[in-house]
């Protein structure tokens, strides 16, 4: 699949190199079922999941190399992101858990795919534009919904009414660390609110962990975390910062109706 889809993407670039284009390239890796090409099998030592990630890296490298070969690198905005946090065993027995070793897919973040904790909702997000974006790490709060308004602003287009999207182009280009001040987070129909450095999670009933073993953030009494001081969300401050919790609970209900 990776060879075939990467080939199609490169073909598209060649056919549209002389005019403005938009290319959405949805990588299958490392989604299940993880089926890396034979030449990548064993490359990571972490089983099919690790090998598929290396294959994804290869695919991205092929696209970047083709842009460079066509002389398009300095005139192309490249965005690399994901739709959710990591998951190991997602219903397929492919040694993802057994061969993980010391690797921590979510790093210091708590939870994973399906979770309202940061490891479920905070995703990889890299923006590249040769000569226009200086290498840096940004703490700006942005959302993939903001692609629409931001790219519209970049290309001088106007959006019609009804788009839940904001122009955060300066943050995407690394020219500002100011973007959104708040954002509704969602995982499997449950929502939380990020406001500044705070994350408020309402109380949800049900199992604390899903079938993959990831914590769902079903917190008795709800949760309140200061992401700047506690990125791993180990300290629930809902009892010690009741005014903040009450304010964010009210705001969350106003936005979501819940």
Report the structural category: alpha+beta
Oligomer: single chain
Tell me what portion of residues adopts beta-strand conformation: 5-15%
Shape estimate: globular
What sequence of helices (H) and strands (E) makes up the elements?
Answer: HHEHEHHEEEEH
Please tally the β strands and state the result: 6
Q: Biggest sheet, open or closed, and with what strands and sense?
A: 4 strands, antiparallel
User: What number is the mean pLDDT?
Assistant: 95
The end-to-end distance, rounded to whole angstroms, is 41 Å
Rg, Å, rounded: 20 Å
Helix content: 25-40%
Low-confidence runs of at least 5 consecutive residues: none
Output the strand order for the largest sheet: 3-4-5-6
Structural description of this entry:
The chain is of the alpha+beta class. Helix content is 27%, strand content 11%. It has a four-stranded antiparallel beta sheet with strand order 3-4-5-6, covered by helices on one side. It has a two-stranded antiparallel ribbon with strand order 1-2. The protein is globular, with a radius of gyration of 20 Å. It starts with a helix and ends with a helix. The relative contact order is 0.11.
Topology (elements, then pairings):
Blueprint (H helix, E strand, L loop, with lengths): L1 H14 L31 H23 L8 E4 L36 H4 L3 E4 L17 H9 L14 H4 L9 E6 L2 E6 L2 E4 L21 E4 L15 H15 L2
Antiparallel strand pairs: 1-2, 3-4, 4-5, 5-6
Helix pairs in contact: 1-2
Summarize this structure as a short list of keywords or feature phrases:
single chain; 258 residues; alpha+beta; 4-stranded antiparallel beta sheet; two-stranded antiparallel ribbon; 6 helices; 6 strands
């Amino acid at each position: 699949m990776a060879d075939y889809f990467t080939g199609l993407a490169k073909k598209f670039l060649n056919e549209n190199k002389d005019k403005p284009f938009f290319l959405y390239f949805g990588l299958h890796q490392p989604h299940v079922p993880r089926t890396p090409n034979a030449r990548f099998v064993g490359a990571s030592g972490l089983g099919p999941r690790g090998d598929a990630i290396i294959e994804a890296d290869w695919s991205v490298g092929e696209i970047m190399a083709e842009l460079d070969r066509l002389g398009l690198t300095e005139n192309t905005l490249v965005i690399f992101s994901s739709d959710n946090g990591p998951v190991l065993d997602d219903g397929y027995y492919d040694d993802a858990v057994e061969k993980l070793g010391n690797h921590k897919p979510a790093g210091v973040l708590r939870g994973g795919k399906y979770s309202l904790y940061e490891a479920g909702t905070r995703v990889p997000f890299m923006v590249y534009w040769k000569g226009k974006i200086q290498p840096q790490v940004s703490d700006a709060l942005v959302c993939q919904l903001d692609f629409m308004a931001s790219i519209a602003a970049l290309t001088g287009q106007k959006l019609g009414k009804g788009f839940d999207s904001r122009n955060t182009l300066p943050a995407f280009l690394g020219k500002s660390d100011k973007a959104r001040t708040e954002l509704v987070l969602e995982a499997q129909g449950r929502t939380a609110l990020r406001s500044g450095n705070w994350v408020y999670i309402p109380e949800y009933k049900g199992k604390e962990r899903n079938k993959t073993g990831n914590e769902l953030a079903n917190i008795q009494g709800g949760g309140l975390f200061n992401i700047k001081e506690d990125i791993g969300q180990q300290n629930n401050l809902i009892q010690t910062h009741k005014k903040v919790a009450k304010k964010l609970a009210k705001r969350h209900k106003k936005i979501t109706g819940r």
